[in-house]
Each structure stands twice: as structure tokens, then as C-alpha cells.
Amino acid sequence: MRCCRFITFVAVALMSLLITLASVEAAGECGRMPIGQAAASLSPCLPATKNPRSKVPPVCCAKVGALIRTNPRCLCAVMLSPLAKNAGINPGIAIAVPKRCNIRNRQAGKRCGRYIVP
Questions:
Q1: Element (H, E) at 98
Q2: What are the residues whose beta carbons fall under 8 Å from the beta carbon of 56, sequence distance 6 or more?
Q3: What are the pLDDT digits (tens) for 41-94?
Q4: Is 118 helix (H, G, I), strand (E, B) or coil?
Q5: CA-based nearest residue to 98, from 110, 87, 88, 84
Q6: Which of 3-12, 15-24, 53-62 is predicted least confidently?
Q7: What is the DSSP code string of 30-49?
Q8: InterPro entries per the record (predicted)?
Q9: Which of 26, 30, 70, 118 is deepest in the core (most CB within 10 A)?
Q10: Domain boundaries, the chain
Q11: What is the distance between the alpha carbons of residues 110 and 53, in angstroms, rounded to a whole number?
């Protein structure tokens, strides 16, 4: 009888551990938000990521500022993602959008792939 209880306890403990590990592994650079969803939220920024002279829309600056406050690594992950590349985003231009928005708490001097945040 004790043997069955012990085996049940071990099985439940292992299942709990596996569920915990799976949920931790599922959280990427953007937390639990899929990177595609994070990228879609930044769609107002698209013109500003292709041309360094284009005006950055205020809605873009608001979205970038919010993302920097909540999860700055996510912004870098989005800019370097295959989704961004497929959309024609130039990471060298995109990395400067927070500066062009005059966001003060950006991670200036930090690396984002091979780029340095201005």
C-alpha cells in the first residue's frame, strides 16, 4: 500500500515539474506574448523602420515606449526577428526609433544583436 502511494506521489511530482518546465520554456524574449503579436503591435512604426528620415508617428512612439518600460528585450527580439526581415525592416534604422521618439529611458549603449542602441 505504501509503495503505491509513493509511486503516485513521485508521478504527481514529476508531472508538476514537467508542466513548470514547459511553461518556463514557452516564455521567450517577449514573455508569454508571441513575438508575432508583439511585432503586430508595432505595425504603426513600419515606415519609420525603413527610412531614417521619415517622421515617427506618435502612436508608434507610445507603443515603443510602453514596450521599453515593460520588456525592453522584446523590442530587440522583434527588430531582429525573421518577421521583421520579411517585412523589410532595416534593423540599423529600427534600432534608432526610440531615440527618434525622444524616449529617455531607452537602453542607450546596449547591444541588440550586432547593433548598439543610440
A1: helix 97-100
A2: 45, 48, 97, 100, 101
A3: 999 999 999 999 999 999 999 999 999 999 989 999 999 999 999 999 999 999
A4: coil
A5: 110
A6: 15-24
A7: TBTS-HHHHHHHTGGGGGGG
A8: Bifun_inhib/LTP/seed_sf, Bifunc_inhib/LTP/seed_store, DIR1-like, Plant_nsLTP
A9: 30
A10: 26-117
A11: 23
* Burial (CB count <10 Å: 0-12, 13-18, 19+), residue 29: middle
Q: Which CATH number fits domain 26-117: 1.10.110.10, 1.20.140.10, 2.60.40.2950, 3.30.1640.10?
A: 1.10.110.10
Burial class (CB in 10 A: 0-12, 13-18, 19+), 69: exposed
Residue pointed to by grid coordinates 529611458: 105
Work out the angle between the directed axes of helices 58-70 and 72-79 (0-180°, nearest 10).
120
